[in-house]
Design goal:
- The chain has about 400 residues and is an alpha/beta fold.
- The protein has 2 domains: about 10-180, Rossmann fold; about 190-400, Rossmann fold (3-Layer(aba) Sandwich), CATH 3.40.50.
- Helix content is about 35%, strand content about 25%.
- The chain is built from 14 helices and 19 strands.
- It has helices at about 20-30, 50-60, 70-75, 75-85, 95-100, 110-115, 130, 135-145, 170-180, 215-225, 255-265, 310-315, 330-340, 385-400; strands at about 10-15, 35-40, 85-90, 120-125, 150, 155, 165, 190-195, 200-205, 205-210, 230-235, 245-250, 270-275, 280-285, 305, 320-330, 345-350, 365-370, 375-380.
């Protein structure tokens, strides 16, 4: 099975135990699969493998202290928790499993675990008798009941000389299992068309009208839809982002180009249309053949309104399920509800782009999603996590049985 963790952010927690030596290979396997990896180590883990080793392999400083002045000045423990798509504790010793089950927050790893909104996974590693003991079994059952994924342990000979269950799974197996956790299947077989990024409306051969959209939200949604099993066509304005794996990308420049490609893609077959692109509302009436030279203190450019792409798709007789986006600077929710109604959309996601900590250029976002008869607030998180939550909402609207 091909392991694909492209664009995934994995926080690897290492607790004390001889299996910590496998974590070095695990970091390499995760990175080879495309993941960005940050490492957190307990004090006991540092007795088995050095932070310097993990720093060299991950390419990032290793975090060991809960109250680290340097870390707090940059990426504090809460920000690190929000950063992660998945937190994997490997090896997970009997001690750390007990502390996670009890909800303790007495070191950096347990604090991050409580604060992380992403997927949570443990890979147990301990003496075989410790693994079968009643307290450990009860702690594991407690974590399973909270939705934690438990990978392993495997059986075999152990460093202490015992033979039995308690060995940490090999790095390649853990990487494969982690990749599988992102494949939800909630949109299996669906065809999704997504618009992303800005449009550029030319004034002359060297100038254009545009906006600050980075395309990050649309690209995160494309990846999330692929993870959910969909076939995805991404119609992208000019951005500097790599194309997500298994996504068909079509580059466009202007709003008219984006509309033409979008209508063609919908005509070819589309179950869900997600309009994240920040389409220019207006374009110049005429485009100068040559660069406009400075001739005075003022320049007047006549603009004409661009067609509304999402409303055009929503008005088609063969309309798919249509999701719009509303990026506003004031009265965000009121404007979004109006667009949901007036454009006949099935769902709309709105966010406040006047905030400095979310929006166009940020890696984070926060939004409120509205549909007929319901709404859901998505608190600030990385756009990758927001995208998965939004895809889950879309899937449940299309198939209420999910």
């Amino acid at each position: 099975m091909l392991v694909n963790l492209s664009n995934k952010r994995i926080l690897l927690g290492i607790s004390g135990g001889i299996a910590a030596y496998k974590s070095a290979d695990l970091v390499r396997r995760l990175r080879d699969a495309g993941a960005e990896v940050r490492v957190v180590m307990t004090a006991a883990a540092c007795q088995f493998i050095t932070p310097l080793t993990l720093q060299a392999l991950s390419g990032h400083p290793v975090h060991t202290e809960l109250l680290d002045p340097e870390a707090e000045a940059g990426m504090g423990h809460i920000e690190l928790a929000r950063w992660a798509d998945l937190v994997l504790v490997a090896p997970a010793s009997a001690d750390v499993i007990a502390r996670l089950a009890a909800g303790l927050a007495n070191d950096l790893l347990t604090t991050l675990w409580l604060a992380c909104p992403g997927i949570k996974v443990i890979a147990p590693a301990m003496n075989q008798q410790m693994w079968v003991s009643s307290p450990t079994r009860e702690n594991v059952e407690c974590l399973l009941g909270r939705g934690v994924v438990v990978l392993g342990p495997a059986s075999g000979s152990q460093a202490c000389g015992d033979v039995g269950a308690g060995r940490m799974l090999e790095a390649v197996e853990l990487a494969r299992h982690c990749a599988g956790l992102f494949a939800t299947g909630s949109l299996a077989g669906r065809r999704v068309v997504i618009t992303a990024g800005p449009t550029r409306e030319p004034i002359d051969p060297v100038r254009y009208v545009s906006n600050h959209s980075s395309g990050k939200m649309g690209y995160a949604l494309a990846q999330a839809c692929v993870e959910a099993g969909a076939r995805v066509t991404l119609i992208s304005g000019p951005v500097h982002l790599p194309t997500p794996e298994r996504v068909q990308r079509i580059n466009v420049g202007s709003a008219l180009e984006m509309l033409s490609v979008a209508e063609s893609a919908v005509s070819d077959g589309c179950d869900i249309f997600i309009a994240t692109a920040a389409v220019a509302d207006y374009r110049p009436v005429s485009v100068a053949e040559h660069k406009i030279k400075k001739t005075g203190d003022a320049l007047t450019i006549e603009l004409v309104r661009n067609p509304d792409i999402v409303a055009t798709v929503a008005s088609r007789p063969d309309r798919p399920f249509v999701v719009g986006f509303a990026a506003e600077t004031r009265q965000v929710e009121e404007y979004a509800k109006g667009k949901l109604r007036d454009k006949r959309l099935d769902m709309i996601a709105c966010n406040d782009v006047s905030r400095a900590d979310i929006g166009f250029q940020s890696d984070d976002n926060a939004m409120v999603v509205f549909w007929d008869g319901g709404s859901q607030r998505l608190d600030k998180a990385p756009k990758t996590l927001i995208a998965r939550e939004l895809v889950s909402l879309i899937a449940r609207q299309i198939n209420p049985s999910l």
